[in-house]
Every structure is written in C-alpha cells, then in structure tokens.
Specification:
It is built from 3 helices and no strands. The chain has a single domain (about 1-85), classed as Chorismate mutase (Chorismate Mutase Domain, subunit A), CATH 1.20.59. The longest helix is centred in the N-terminal third of the chain and has 37 residues, at about 1-40. It has helices spanning about 1-40, 45-60, 65-85. The protein is mostly helical. Helix 2 (about 45-60) runs antiparallel to helix 3.
Length: about 90
Amino acid sequence: MERLTYLRKQIDEVDRQILDLLRRRLTIAEEIGRVKVENRLPTRDEEREREVLERAASKAEADGIDPEPVRRIFTEIIRLSTEAQKRT
C-alpha cells in the first residue's frame, strides 16, 4: 500500500503541473488576445488550431498514446484559450 500511496502522490504532482501549465497557457492566450485586438485580427485562427491539433496528435502517437483522446483534450484547451483571448 505504501507504493500505491507514493504513486498516487506522483499523479497528484503531475496533475498540479498540468494545471500550472494550463494557467500559463491561458495567460499567454490573454496576451495574444490583446495583440490581436491591437492589430484588428480575428480571435480564431482555424489554420493555427489545425496545426496545434495535428502536432499534439502526432506527438501523442509517436509517444505511444492514442491520438484521438489527445485531440479532444487539445480541442478543449483551444476553446479555453479562445475564451481567454476574448476576455481582453
């Protein structure tokens, strides 16, 4: 059971890191939103979104991870980032 507790603590730490990185990404997205407003650019860039999704799916597949759930996760991350850009 000690090993299980240890492993769960490792998962908890990884989860914390994921959330820290998500917050960092959203902070950067807010700044991108300001730059887009200053330059009169649309919030959404569908080509960029496709690139991000493809890169994430390719990396997942190369790492032996099912790319479809990763694609869904990144779709949601992009949605959150787009919302962050709109708040600026």
